[in-house]
Amino acid sequence: MVPELSVNAQDGAVPDSLVVVSNREPYSHERDDDGEIRVQSAAGGLTSALDPVMQSRGGTWVAWGSGDADMAVAEEGMIEVPPSAPTYDLKRVPLSDAAVQGYYYGYANQVLWPLCHEDTGRMWAEPAYWDQYRAVNEQFAEAVDTVADAGQPVWFQDYHLALAPRAVRERRPDATLLQFWHIPWPAPSVFRHCPHSDVLLDGLLACDVIGFHTAAYAEQFLHCVDRAFPAATIDTDSGTVVRGGDRTQVVANPLGIDVEAVRDRARTADVASIRDTVLGGSRSDPSIRLALGVERLDYSKGIPERIEALAHLWERRPDLRGAFTYVQKASRTREGIAAYRRYRADVVDAIERVNDRFGTVDWQPIVYTEANLDNETLAGLYRAADVAVVTPHRDGMNLVAHEYPAACVDGDGSLVLSELAGAATHLDGTLTVNPHDINAIADAIERALELGEAETSDRLTRLKHSVEALDSSQWVARQFSAGQSL
């Protein structure tokens, strides 16, 4: 089994300047309804982990210029960020509508995303998607070549850019290249469904270091390489691949969160006000407990099974009707893909059916919101919840599972977690379930609501220790420490 990197990596492993390459940009410029240009900061684990590093170390972040005013404010695609106090450069890659449809909505999210989440029935390998994916990866490689200084490491992020490392390596044979794959890596029997599997592997193996969230994902990657390239020399115990004279180090390096930042936001949150805002004043009786789910409207997240589990629970336990409300905080995503639009409609319909079946004049079983909650409000909502339910079918890590216990600053709170999320490998103290087992999910929510004070405290303490051990401040240092051993 590929070993997990030490959590005690030194900050000195991080270079003084680097190039980060990702699909999503850390800051975008958008026009509002009045035509005024406003800056938006991206949310998510990638940005929260890498933006502080880039601010302290400097360098260039290369990303798709997705904002409608991005290129208008950039000079030859370059702009200094953060806008308030610039410390590094952002190189924006402009993409045509056809490129976005083929590369992003097409190949990345209708081939690689379902493939890596082992849902091959949703794959659609339209030839034009592959053409655009290759062309856009080449665009990113060209952008990197224009901004990277000699000796400056280049760190690619995620499944959008599997081919770009090889394209950069051909331009810069001596460059130090790294990649982090933020979603699961599938078993060889699943990966072989991809018609371009060998080309994708070749692109990734141009890197000196490839990181995954778990040792299991890293090992499955090595098995895929072994099947595709029998002449390669693979050492699973050390996580190394030698092929054609090149050596690639494959590592398990779980991404966590900025624990103290989440705690600070939770401590200062006005929980009563947040509860009123999310639930609506007439439904925010403080005696009614809260269960909470927070995720994008992606079919991998297991929301329909969770809703059905809640219905099963309220059916068999009438005494729990009115005792707790489930809040589903959802975010629309990839609405350019019909499957995502249908998924959202199915989720909304399922919630309405449960509310019609069990709701009363004084109590709504499920509160559904797509409101854009800022980090402070979200931390307060975590703190208000007695139970968080995180039950994806498959997930690379799932940082909600990290954020929730960090925000439980009052010493209570229970986490129901899918055993198929990467977080389940690293977090101790969860109530773990199979995300397809509706009865098991119902049982776990019921148990979480009825745990005694001592067990709740013990589980939460273990959870917090697990989350602290994976603080995002160490993630970058661990990745570069692996590169220093080459």
Structure notes:
- With 486 residues, the protein is an alpha/beta fold.
- Helix content is 43%, strand content 18%.
- The chain is built from 18 helices and 18 strands.
- It has helices at 45-57, 70-73, 97-116, 127-147, 164-171, 188-191, 197-204, 215-228, 259-268, 271-279, 303-316, 338-358, 375-384, 400-407, 423-426, 438-450, 453-469, 472-484; strands at 18-22, 27-31, 37-41, 59-64, 78-81, 88-93, 154-157, 177-180, 209-212, 233-235, 240-243, 246-252, 289-296, 324-331, 366-369, 387-390, 414-418, 431-433.
- It has a 10-stranded mixed beta sheet, sandwiched between helices. It has a 6-stranded parallel beta sheet with strand order 15-14-13-16-17-18, sandwiched between helices. Strands 2-3 form a two-stranded antiparallel ribbon.
- Helix 11 (303-316) packs parallel to helix 12.
- It is globular, with a radius of gyration of 23 Å.
- The mean pLDDT is 95.
Summary?
The chain is of the alpha/beta class and 486 residues long.
Distance between the termini: 19 Å
Query: Number of helix segments?
Result: 18
Oligomer: single chain
Poorly predicted sequence stretches spanning 5 or more consecutive residues: none
Average pLDDT, rounded to a whole number, is: 95
| Secondary-structure content class | alpha/beta
Tell me the β content: 15-25%
Largest sheet, described in full? 10 strands, mixed
The geometry reads as: globular
Work out the radius of gyration.
23 Å
What spatial order of strands do you see in the largest sheet?
Answer: 5-6-4-1-7-8-9-12-11-10
User: Care to count the β-strands?
Assistant: 18
State the helicity in percent bands: 40-55%
